[in-house]
User: Which sequence fits this backbone?
């Protein structure tokens, strides 16, 4: 059988086989996600949503996924609605939601929160982001997007661009791409380079990784530009920030005539010009849609 | 009564000799044992010659035999240490400390934003992912902890 995991907490828990299983299942879910077919496979099942931090896309796409499969959702979407404000521990809150639901999706500001509750409760737990930690469903939908566009992830050349130091999505993605023998180029200002321990792990798996500070170094020889936001808070000097920000901005002129796709975990601010949105290279909205079939596949695999 | 040969300090009648401590880590070992405590008789030797490891530290404590959780903590700081139990001047037991595959409860996660630092009822838990040098990974937040961060907690 394909999928052995009881929880989805960190991409490091996945084998390549687990990932391939979910990507394959997601493809079958697409007609349902597009409302061309209906499904009742999770009818009568309830998904508990514990969102201690606001999130639009992730939360809505989990809700859509559950409902597309005939299930329903309960829960809260910000900390003010939770009983944490009354001093209840996360452990108790999770135990209570577990009494009402068949699986839990949690987003929390503390790293390790999802692993922590999965150790305590018996129903499946899905990590929808734990502080600066993991966000495995984002990684799976990123992989799915590449698979749908190129058919094979193996052998692709992927550039991860922007804040590679603090961006949690790029860390998980780099680990996952390594399982597929993808050549990676890390493009970032020197202040925001990929952490050394990750580079070390990748090299140990004999993955070809290169680092550069300029997009122009890579753009002619790459299949995917995976763009992330550089946050102002990372730079004490506002002038420095605006200079750096400009150097990592993607616009239509750069892409002109180039056989490359542009992905982004969203929300995008100004690191991709809106003049890219109408180009064939723009895949970030399609990527956002793919969050639904991928999460449907996970829900189906986890909820028994 | 047989006296051990070639001892640089006076032999102890009853107690524990912690030998083969990683050199210059003896003071951390003392901290783990809550020494000096004002009354125990303790001998510390730092940076001694060792035929096996080049150099080593030694701690000798009179009238004390260690608890297992103390030995577990010593293993984090000095993974090659040998514990010798002395009774009536003789070594009656000798064993090497052993760093288990997991470390439970002893250490705090160095990540302030880890769920284990958020007033939840939870014991910390780390996986030993490297033994030399010791590197631990938090079960919860996955953050790595190196020797400096481990030592700074003792
Ligand atoms: N009665 C004692 N009082 C104080 N120290 C002692 C006593 N007996 C042994 N020791 C010390 O304990 C340590 C171990 O002694 P032992 O005679 O087993 O040496 P060894 O053969 O070198 O052992 P190992 O193989 O563990 O290095 C040495 O550092 C020795 O000086
Ligand atoms: Mg010896
Ligand atoms: Zn931690």
Assistant:
């Amino acid at each position: 059988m394909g999928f052995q995991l009881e929880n989805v907490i960190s991409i490091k828990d996945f084998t390549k086989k687990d990932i391939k299983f979910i990507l394959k299942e997601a493809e079958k879910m697409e007609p349902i996600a597009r409302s061309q077919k209906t499904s009742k496979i999770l009818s009568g099942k309830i998904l508990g949503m514990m969102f201690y931090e606001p999130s639009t896309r992730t939360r809505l796409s989990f809700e859509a996924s559950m409902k597309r499969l005939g299930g329903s959702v309960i829960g809260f979407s910000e900390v003010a609605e939770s009983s944490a404000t009354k001093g209840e521990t996360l452990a108790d809150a999770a135990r209570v939601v577990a009494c009402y639901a068949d699986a839990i999706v949690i987003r929390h500001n503390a790293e390790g929160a999802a692993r922590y509750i999965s150790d305590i409760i018996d129903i499946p737990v899905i990590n929808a982001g734990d502080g600066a930690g993991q966000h495995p469903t984002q990684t799976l939908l990123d992989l799915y997007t590449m698979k749908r566009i190129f058919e094979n992830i193996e052998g692709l050349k992927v550039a991860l661009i922007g804040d590679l130091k603090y961006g949690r999505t790029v860390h998980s993605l780099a680990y996952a791409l390594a399982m597929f023998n993808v050549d990676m180029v890390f493009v970032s200002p020197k202040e925001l380079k990929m952490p050394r321990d990750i580079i070390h792990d990748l090299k140990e798996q004999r993955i070809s990784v290169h680092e550069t500070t300029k997009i122009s170094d890579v753009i002619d020889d790459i299949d995917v530009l995976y763009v992330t936001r550089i946050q102002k808070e990372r730079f004490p000097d506002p002038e420095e920030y605006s200079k750096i920000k400009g150097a990592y901005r993607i616009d239509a002129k750069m892409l002109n005539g180039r056989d490359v796709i542009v992905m982004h975990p969203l929300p995008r601010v100004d690191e991709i010009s809106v003049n890219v949105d109408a180009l064939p290279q723009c895949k970030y909205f399609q990527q956002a849609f793919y969050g639904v079939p991928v999460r449907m596949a996970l829900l189906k695999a986890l909820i028994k | 009564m047989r006296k051990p040969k070639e001892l640089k300090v006076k032999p102890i009648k009853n107690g524990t000799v912690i030998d083969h401590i990683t050199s210059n880590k003896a003071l951390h070992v003392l901290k783990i044992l809550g020494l000096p405590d004002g009354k125990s008789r303790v001998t510390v030797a730092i940076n001694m010659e060792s035929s096996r490891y080049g150099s080593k530290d030694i701690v000798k404590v009179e009238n004390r035999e260690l608890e297992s959780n103390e030995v577990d903590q010593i293993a984090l700081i000095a993974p090659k240490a040998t514990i010798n139990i002395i009774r009536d001047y003789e070594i009656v037991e000798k064993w090497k400390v052993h760093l288990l595959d997991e470390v439970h409860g002893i250490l705090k996660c160095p990540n302030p934003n880890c769920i284990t630092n958020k007033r939840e009822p939870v014991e910390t838990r780390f996986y030993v992912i490297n033994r030399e040098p010791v590197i631990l990974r938090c079960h919860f937040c996955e953050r790595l902890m190196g020797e400096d961060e481990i030592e700074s907690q003792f």
In short: Chain B touches chain A at residues 111, 113-116, 118-122, 138-144 (CB under 8 Å). DSSP finds three helices and nine strands in chain B. The CA atoms of residues 30 and 36 of chain B lie 7 Å apart.
